[in-house]
Amino acid sequence: MKKKNLFTKRRFTNKTKEELINELTEVYRRIAELEVSEAKCQEALKKTNQKLHHYQKRLKLAQEKIIQDEKLAMLYKFGSFIIHDLKNLGTSFSLAVHAFQTSPQADFLKPHIDAIIAKIENIKQIAAKFSRLPDDLELRFKRCDISSLIKDVLSRFKVPHIRVTEHLPILPPVNCDDSLQMAFYNLIENSVEAMPAGGELLISADLTKGGKYIKICISDTGCGIPEKILNNLFKPFQTTKKKGLGIGLYQCKEIIEKHKGKISLKNKSTQGTECFVLLPVAKDNPD
Questions:
Q1: Which pTM was predicted?
Q2: How many CA atoms lie within 13 A of 3 on its CB side?
């Protein structure tokens, strides 16, 4: 063993100090290159994983949308079978009501006639929900007074158990399609149904600070919405109602976005829910 050590020592001492330093430098250089290469590989792997996660998320969303679209298509397909009958039923009721209105007992029957008219309006609204898919809506814009539109929609509700307060001043016109009435009907109906035992409904419309948008607020003192499903309510088949289909708010969102507007929901700090709709003020030439 001693001879081997002496040989080894002799072999290394034959090298100059400069050669040893150069060899060590080369070793450190290669180690540094390996470390840099490893760091680059780790960074590349990290980016690849991030991209993979992103694509997986997009794939999941695409799959969910396909499922939603298939469900909607089936729903509207079956719904179309009953639209014709619903419309005929509404027409028959309307003719019958007209006959009652012109009868000698019209005054006596007025409360019942008003109730029937309200039900006929509900039938028309149900038929309208299934008449067109939101994606297939062909909007025909015209200038309208949004305050008058909301007042007209509000007049269709007979809610003596709810105190209604409205702040709907004269505002600049907006470009709107008839479908916007259906959207506001759905939103107000949601608030009314959230207060079966009574409550307060506040509807307001104001011009935003910049003057480019009109902000509509529909506020109620109802039961509110569970936070875990609040962010998903604008997706198809998401509902808090036991007998709801979960397409009302989805339709509202689609319609309002086609008007280049925005819609949002939030729970009030006290009690109830607030719905906000933002619609652009009409330009000189409606799109």
A1: 0.59
A2: 0
